[in-house]
Design a protein that fits this description.
alpha/beta; TIM Barrel; Pyruvate Kinase, Chain: A, domain 1; 3 domains; 8-stranded parallel beta barrel; 21 strands
């Protein structure tokens, strides 16, 4: 089940892909990581999907990553009389803490923290920006506004407050319950919504307690202002373009996406590009050419993974969406310009043993036409540093940890195999050659490069590289 591409695919599971057969088909089509969106579905449904994925993992012998995506706080208006009301451009409109159903003149907003943060001149966006209000006067329990863009306001539509850092924890009571559930059933990654500051990640770390890797979803402009700190404290980052696009002008999103990918690559942190990648395939059997170019652009930029959301969760063509994304990635990575672009954007190594080794490793892979790079890693550190360099040879990551093997399913160019600890250098070489042969990464007489840390089994000690020629089939 080796993938012949470097960038990975995340597929969201939902009503359209709940059966064991559909999950199997998504995996065969190219899905490397499965996303459980806790904004939808019951705990029992998600538990059943995890069971199917783990069964598939045993069947195929390939580690599969599971990403638990927390809902996060949702700021919404309350009830509206008769379910909806029409707001006209230029009219006055009030939001307040009164829970009486709203109408064309006012609506309840049961979020006092929003009123506490508002100032005159702030914008309020309702229903993903379809309705736009400007605050004229506000207090602890109300905001008087003028309608800048009118439309139909219906019950429980979402509210965004661009340019304002709200004094909200990104983790609701539901999120904490969902996180505890996910950790108990053995998810590998947890994605957190509404991350705005480093303090949010400190809080999440204390909740996770090392039982899963942390992915920060960047969907608020405030997060971009603290990008370096957020990347530093995260294990991975997701560019949540749909939510970013609500509070930012559409023309700003592409450059911000590129900035996030660049910062993550420099830090050696996996980065995921998400939202509306093949959106038309929710209802159509083929994507638009613009969507295909969008996916390709993320791959050219060096993203570790691209993600499908509604396309696989509720779409009519979920397996086809994964298959087409797989083909797009493969086609991009065959382009001679792809390698030139990656090398031109190569981050400078930091003055550490691991970066020096992995920088040299990239050059070795090119000079000697290495068939595969084999990393020995307990935590995933060696594989991550090797992947940061975007080498020409595929990365075969050997680890004694099931959890690490599953997490590496998200990482660019990395194929993980669970393997017992090694204790001697010759054992390291023999096992690397054997696994490279067995997994189809190298043939007899080809060379592989082996990266490890000594003493063996100590995390973060990447300090050696060994070139080996495969001259026989190892047992």
């Amino acid at each position: 089940m080796r993938r012949h591409r470097n960038a990975k695919i995340i597929a969201t599971l939902g009503p359209a892909t709940s059966s064991a057969q559909k999950i199997h088909d998504l995996f065969v089509a190219g899905a490397d990581v499965f996303r459980l969106n806790l904004s939808h579905g019951s705990v029992d449904e998600h538990r059943e999907r995890v069971g199917v994925i783990r069964g598939l993992e045993k069947q195929t012998g390939r580690p599969i990553g599971i990403l638990l995506d927390l809902q996060g706080p949702k700021i919404r208006v309350g009830d509206i009389q008769n379910g909806k009301a029409t707001l006209e451009e230029g009219q006055s409109f009030t939001l307040d803490g009164n829970d009486t159903p709203g109408d064309a003149n006012r609506a309840p907003l049961p979020h006092p923290e929003v009123f506490a943060a508002l100032r005159p001149g702030n914008a309020l966006l309702i229903d993903d920006g379809r309705i736009r209000l400007e605050v004229k006067r506000c207090g602890g329990n109300f905001a008087e506004t003028v309608v800048k863009i009118g439309g139909t306001l219906s019950d429980h539509k979402g509210v965004n407050v661009p340019g304002v850092v709200l004094p909200l924890s990104p983790f609701t009571k539901k999120d904490k319950q969902d996180l505890a559930f996910g950790l108990d059933i053995g998810i590998d990654w947890v994605a957190a919504s509404f991350i705005q500051r480093r303090e949010d990640l400190v809080q999440l770390r204390s909740l996770v307690e090392g039982r899963a890797a942390i992915m920060s979803k960047l969907e608020k402009p405030a997060a971009i202002q603290h990008l370096d700190h957020i990347v530093e404290l995260s294990d991975s980052v997701m560019v949540a373009r749909g939510d970013l696009g609500v509070e930012l002008a559409p023309e700003q999103v592409p450059s911000i996406q590129k900035k996030i990918v660049r910062v993550c690559r420099e830090a050696g942190k996996p980065v995921v590009v998400a939202t509306q990648m093949l959106e038309s395939m929710v209802s159509a059997p083929l994507p638009t050419r613009a969507e295909a170019s969008d996916v390709a652009g993320a791959v050219y930029d060096g993203a570790d993974a691209v993600m499908l959301s509604a396309e696989t969760a509720v779409g009519k063509y979920p397996v086809e969406a994964v298959a087409i994304m797989d083909r797009i990635i493969t086609e991009v990575e065959k382009d001679p310009h792809y390698r030139a672009i990656l090398d031109a954007r190569l981050p400078q190594p930091t003055p550490t043993d691991a970066d020096a080794i992995c920088d040299a490793l990239r050059r070795i892979a090119h000079t000697l036409s290495i068939a595969a790079i084999v990393t020995y890693t307990s935590s995933g550190f060696s594989a991550l540093r090797a992947a940061r360099e975007r080498p020409e040879a595929p990365i075969l990551s050997l680890t004694p940890s099931t959890q690490t093997a599953r997490r590496m399913a998200l990482v660019w160019g990395t194929h993980s195999v669970q393997s017992e600890d090694i204790r001697r250098v010759q054992e390291m070489v023999d096992k690397a050659c054997s696994v490279a042969l067995k997994e189809g990464f190298a043939d007899v007489d080809q060379k592989i490069a082996i990266v490890a840390g000594m003493p063996f089994g100590v995390s973060g000690t990447t300090n050696m590289v060994r070139i080996a020629r495969i001259d026989r089939l190892e047992e």
